[in-house]
Specification:
Length: 143
């Protein structure tokens, strides 16, 4: 489902330790682990050029990430992933809030994202609203 927001993202930030220099390999690896597509994101995400990246760490290890792409005044959030044992702690929400604030600093007046069924309630609590369904097609992994 496509979701959007024109106001500030709701809620207060949780204390999150951030990786000061996130790289595409870390973000790809987190998404591969969380979404169960071994190597798929790693094959696709080669650069963070043009993207704003946040990676949360705990105990020195990456546990969650999110990216933003700024275009035509919209801060589009993508590749949000949190390891299962670190969910329900406000980490992904905190990353999204940071990215949206940075988007606003760069002139964005809206924010959007595409939500999975499991992610939609998280984004709704942040103030995003449903803008309609998005049909996505995927080719199953070989083997």
């Amino acid at each position: 489902m496509m979701m959007g927001l024109t106001e500030d993202v709701a809620g207060a930030d949780a204390a999150i330790e951030l990786d000061p220099e996130p790289d595409p390999e870390t973000i790809a690896a987190l998404n591969d682990r969380v979404y169960g597509y071994p190597g798929s994101f790693a094959r696709t995400l080669r650069s963070l050029r043009g993207l704003d990246a946040c990676v949360a760490v705990a105990g020195g290890e990456p546990v969650a990430c999110a990216l933003a792409h700024h275009a035509d005044g919209d801060c589009h959030i993508t590749l949000v992933a949190t390891l299962p044992e670190h969910r329900r702690q406000g980490i992904a929400s905190g990353l999204i809030r940071r990215l949206v604030r940075r988007g606003r600093e760069r002139g964005c007046t809206t924010t959007s994202l595409v939500a999975t069924r499991s992610g939609a309630p998280v984004y709704a609590r942040l103030g995003y609203r449903d803008l309609g369904a998005v049909q996505m097609w995927e080719r199953p992994a070989e083997g």
